[in-house]
Amino acid sequence: MNSNLAREGKLVRMLIVDDEPVICEGLRCTIDWAEYGVEVVGEAYDGKEALRQVEEHDVDLLLSDIRMEGMDGMQLAEQLKHKFPKVRVIMISGYEDFTYARQAIRLGVSDYLLKPVDIEELGTVVKGVVDSIRKQEEEGSTQEMELWLSNMARHGIAYGAEVPASLHGAQFRILATQLENFHERFGGMAAEQYKEIQDAWITTLSSSLQLHSLRTVSVFDHENLLITLVVSDVWLDHKVWDELLASSIPSLPGGASLYCGASRFYTDLSDTSDRCAEAHELLLYYVLEGLPILQSEYRDVIGVNRTLPNFDITDMVQNLVSNLFKQNTDEVQLLVESMFRFFREKGFLLSELLNICEELFTLLRQRLRKSGMTELDYGHKVKPDLNIYNSYAGLESIMMEDMKELLLLIDKQGIDKSYWIIEKAKKYMTDHYRADLKASEVAAWLKITPSYFSNIFKQSTGKGFTEYMNEMRIDHAKDLLATTQDKVFEIADKVGYKEYKYFVSVFKLYTGMTPKEYRGLSASQECGQVK
């Protein structure tokens, strides 16, 4: 989508979605979107209208509220994932709900921001998504079959392995080869020295295959991914192919080891692109068995028998947050080591492991933002390249580097024990909101002075104690008004208001209507949905 625009640095097309027109207008006008490489192409007030405009305007990026009438933000994200998978989504929510965040991440949402949205933070997130769109479009274009074939022809001539003009009756097979433990062994190598290894790689592999009268054309699709077209002018059955390949994957000078993914053989060159993808995918299975050659039959058998246990990512995030704020580097390292030990023992592929790590960092980032850390970069890093970090140890090392950066950032921002005091206070308030709770009582329970509690509570939440309690109680009252037949005075008592008139006045202050008016509106909306 818009690949030429992205490569030329032109504006990314964004749609704003919110069921309140004034919010859409505010988001459109508050930020100079062009400064972030964005053109706002429209506004939509519900999910169905958003889907129509996505198709009409060829949208790249969607900025959406999560709670809307009709099709809400989550349902919209799910529809986009199936119908327009290239569209990126940034979700905005007024609810600090961990479940919402996890669901959004699993639907492919790029980021999840909480209201009230900080304009600078939103700009930073949008810029990160724009950069990611442009980078992905540039990389995606290089994977097109025509470009792959032109590169292959160029390298084939350079290495004396030109494919003849006529290939009638020939058989083909794609090999994808990679250096083992690339990051650990070759990550810091000088360019000239590594070029010598690449030259030896192509020459040695080609010579080994030519011993069996197989011709080759090779191209580096990545510094650690060599794609080789193997050509046989005589018809070979499957068993013979396998025997030839098994004796043809060499070790390189200096003891560097290769492993290989081998596609099935084929006769139509138009299938080359699919066979390249097949061979490359097989490389992911190397970490399970350490076989030098991996073939599609192996993947099919392993895929049928593989069952992966659930990894408790919520518990891991909570433990990491706790130890990051405590600046407990040793414990953070032990947690990372235990996580990767689990992945090894349970046989996770590197791609599966990477997806879990991406989800973990997104949830971790959300939890850190809630604590007041506003200087987090978009994402935690550029997504690690599995051609470079092609081992458990490689991915573990980069994850630990990211954790050390977070430790330094937390130390720099000086977040202290007040975070944990407020977290305990919030839980206590949630458990006791039905009572006539006072700030002094919470302070006493925390064993701190009321003035200190009031000060750090305001700093952490941006709200005074009474305002925070009122918002919590009114939210519960709205839910009871919409879902029960309880009388208004009964609901007032249930949510912690002993005086009916005071409850009504507070409710109207926060919602703009009386409890009875709110109940009537909720009932009419429900009837409308039923119809």
Automatic annotation (TrEMBL):
UniProt superkingdom: Bacteria
Annotated transmembrane regions: none
One Gene Ontology CC term in the entry: cytoplasm
InterPro entries linked: CheY-like_superfamily, Homeodomain-like_sf, HptR, HTH_AraC, HTH_AraC-typ_CS, Sig_transdc_resp-reg_receiver, Tscrpt_reg_AraC-type_HTH
Keyword set includes Mitochondrion: no
CDD domains to which the protein is assigned, alphabetical: REC_YesN-like
Keyword entries, A-Z: Cytoplasm, DNA-binding, Phosphoprotein, Transcription, Transcription regulation, Two-component regulatory system
Residues in Response regulatory domain copies: 13-130
Annotated positions of the 4-aspartylphosphate modification: 65
UniProt-listed GO biological process terms: phosphorelay signal transduction system
Keyword Transcription regulation: yes
HTH araC/xylS-type domain location: 423-521
SUPFAM superfamilies, per database record: CheY-like, Homeodomain-like
A Pfam family matched in the record: Response_reg
The protein's name: Response regulator
Native organism: Paenibacillus monticola
